[in-house]
Amino acid sequence: MKRLVDALVDDTDFFVEQVQITAIVFDNTDDVTVWATTFFDDDIHFFHLGLQFPTLDLLLRLAGSRAEALQEQIADALATVTDWPCLLEYTTEDSPPVPLDGVALKLSCTYPADEPEDDEDSMPHNIFYLEGVFMRLEP
Questions:
Q1: Domain map of the chain by residue range?
Q2: Region 16-37 average pLDDT
Q3: Is the four-CA dihedral 130, 46, 114, 116 of positive or negative sign?
Q4: Cα–Cα distances in Å, from 108 out to 22, 46, 71, 126?
Q5: What predicted TM-score, i.e. pTM, was given to this entire model?
Q6: Residue 59, Cβ neighbours under 10 Å: how many?
Q7: Does the N-terminal peptide bond of residue 99 adopt cis geometry, omega within 30 degrees of 0?
Q8: Are 41 and 8 in contact (CB under 8 A)?
Q9: What is the mean pLDDT of residues 114-125?
């Protein structure tokens, strides 16, 4: 599996479809990182998506028949977590990846915070910001 950032031609905003959530990491009480895969440029790529909890809730509502169970699982984890970060994985037969069917995510690149902003050789992280969520409408 390849890193999504390595498949990009430049660092402009772009769309991904066929997204599957493979893990959710609670970084702290405000931020969450979603680990996901997508079929991009004829291959499977993985990426990380930095979110706040309201945006995670939006994505979970788009998880089809698993939406309610996922929301309950996350609420339970948040109510009992004592150590940060907290990881929920979706990579097994009992807990498979969560497909976001009919959803396209508009993503933007992130860069290391410790490099100068005007450094043109700076390489983006494989962590992205979510710029928008779009649904495929069938006639």
A1: 2-135
A2: 92
A3: negative
A4: 20, 15, 26, 10
A5: 0.86
A6: 24
A7: no
A8: no
A9: 60
Residues in contact with 4: Cβ distance below 8 Å, sequence separation at least 6, in sequence order? 16, 38, 40, 45, 46, 47, 126, 128
3-state secondary structure of 129: strand
How many C-beta atoms surround the C-beta of residue 126 within 10 A? 16
Instruction: State the Cα–Cα distance between residues 54 and 44, nearest whole angstrom.
Output: 27
Q: What percent of the chain has pLDDT over 70?
A: 91
Sign of CA dihedral 126, 132, 133, 136: negative
Residue corresponding to tokens 């970060």: 85
Q: What is the mean pLDDT of residues 37-51?
A: 92
Residue 92: CB partners within 8 Å, gap ≥ 6? none
> How far apart, in whole angstroms, are the C-alpha atoms of residue 90 and residue 83?
20
| Residue 114 pLDDT level (bands cut at 50, 70, 90) | low
Listed in sequence order, the residues at least 6 apart from 42 whose beta carbon sits closer than 8 Å to its beta carbon are none
Distance of CA 113 to the CA centre of its chain: 20
